[in-house]
Amino acid sequence: MKIPTSIWKIKALAIKEARDILQNRIYLLVVLVQVFIIIGAVGLVAVAAVASDPTLLDQTGVTSALNIGLPQNLEGSSLSKYLEDEKITLNYYNTTDEAKTELGKKLVAVVDLSPSGEVVVQMDNSNVFYPVVSTKIRDAVDNFNTENTLKNAGLNQSQVNIIQNPVKFQEIKINQDKEVPLALDSPYFVEVIYGFIVPFILLLPFFMASNIVTDSVVGEKERKTFEVLLMTPLSSYMVIIGKIIPILLFSLIQSIAWIAVLDLLRVPIFNAALLVVVLFFMGLAFIGLGILISMLVDSTKEANSAITLVLVFATFILFIPLFVKSEIFQGVFNFIPTVLMVKLAVSPNIQPEIMLYLLPTLIISFLIFVGTVRSFRHERAIRL
User: What GO MF terms are annotated (predicted)?
Assistant: First the structure.
């Protein structure tokens, strides 16, 4: 079967554009920077999840490095026992005043009993683990106060223990062979990673491409080769397709690579094929917009400024719905492509009709493409 000549011409233009992109050192540097962004983002969320979760801190052994001070007379008391149960390291001092001198240095908190029997806690609020230590001390103090109340009511220690620990249960895991290997078993980690980091990382190549692609037309103008492009024996549609294909493919390849990197970091992404479809149409819109802006301005500086403003607005539209919990607007938010990406990424079981939410993105991408072609055709008619 003979391949139409127009296909060969588009291929030739696409190869030329691809060569220009690969020779752009800034673009290659941007690709490398994205790797560090991915690793850094996942790492920061993991650290934040551990720092805010007392259970994870216990599992990692961090809490044993957190020191609180008590006066010597509290050693062996029920209060110290409850504090030890929270896996915090206790340091005893001759007096409370002596312990206070170490607050903010060695100690995160100082705990004491007032003459009336009330627990007095002084905390170093500047410590990064202050929220976790505060929670642990509060739990220990609650248990201590409950014990005193029950004992004052005439109960013995055995009865107090039964009341404070009424239920003991054993967790039995099933279907462990189907368990998804996740970097951290933390609700905070899952919410932030899938609710923001994953769509941000997968869209990052297209954000970067939008800036790079502005050179596609305005760069031709500055190099005085734009008229040569206008005189090529290709229709306006073919020229735009030839310019879009290389950067779109490069961006899709990067996003697929980032899915693999996330999987290596134990952040599994489900429905990768459908995600690539969503990314294709979103990328088409971003890159088409970049080319359209490139044709409407006369310098690279103007093009970069314009595309930056567009990306700021797009970021607001795409990511704000991920943080807004509203039943009123949920029906509208479902059509935001980043919301669709989150739904696809988090679960292997999806309904096929969910892809109908992609329809507005498809329409917008098509309209941007048509607008870009018309703008190029108009430019061609004026200059030739």
Answer: ABC-type transporter activity
Please say whether the beta carbons of 252 and 208 come within 8 A: no
Identity of the highest mean pLDDT range in 11-20, 111-120, 252-261, 327-336: 252-261
In total, the chain counts a number of residues equal to 384
Dig out the tokens for 280 from the structure.
Answer: 């294709």
Domains (range + CATH), the chain: 5-51+186-383 (no CATH), 56-164 (3.40.190)
pTM: 0.79
**For residue 17, what are the contacts with CB-CB under 8 A and spacing of at least 6?**
216, 242, 243, 245, 246, 247
Instruction: Write the CA distances from 263 to 23, 182, 273, 316, 345, integer angstroms.
Output: 30, 9, 15, 27, 12
Q: HEC states along 91-136?
A: EEECCHHHHHCCECCCECEEEEECCCCCEEEEECCCCCCHHHHHHH
Residue type, 288: G
Q: Name the DSSP class of 73.
A: G
Q: Are 214 and 368 in contact (CB under 8 A)?
A: no
| Number of helices followed by number of strands (H, E) in the chain | 17, 4
pLDDT tens track for 43-61: 999 888 887 777 777 777 7
DSSP letters, 210-265, are HHHHTHHHHHHHHTT-HHHHHTSSS-HHHHHHHHHHHHHHHHHHHHHHHHHHHHHT
> Beta strands of 12-83 (E only): which ranges?
67-71
Query: What are residue 92's phi and psi, to 5 degrees?
Result: -100, 140
Strands lying side by side in the sheet with 109-113? 89-93, 67-71, 109-113, 119-123
